[in-house]
Design goal:
Elements lengths: L18 E5 L6 E3 L8 H13 L25
Antiparallel strand pairs: 1-2
This protein binds zinc ion.
């Protein structure tokens, strides 16, 4: 969801205080690699909490392909 795809070096926590060079989206302090894009675990939790509480409410767009009542045309036959 919010996790960037390029976090493959996330496991090696050599220096948790290493900055990402980008401000924390929560408090605008310098973000740390260990918690990127946030500056701390706390801010990450805040962001997560916003998601869970619906602050980032995503409009439930109906999927146009969700109509299983109609027979599907053989688009991809292999
Ligand atoms: Zn922060």
């Amino acid at each position: 969801m919010v996790t960037p795809a390029n976090d493959n070096d996330n496991e090696k926590s050599a220096e948790a205080a290493e900055q990402t060079g980008k401000p924390c989206p929560i408090c605008a302090r310098p973000g740390l690699r260990a918690y990127r894009p946030f500056c701390s675990r706390r801010c990450a939790d805040v962001d997560l909490g916003r998601w869970l509480s619906g602050t980032y409410a995503v409009p439930a767009a109906p999927d146009p392909d969700d109509e299983d009542e109609f027979p599907h045309e053989p688009r991809d036959r292999e």
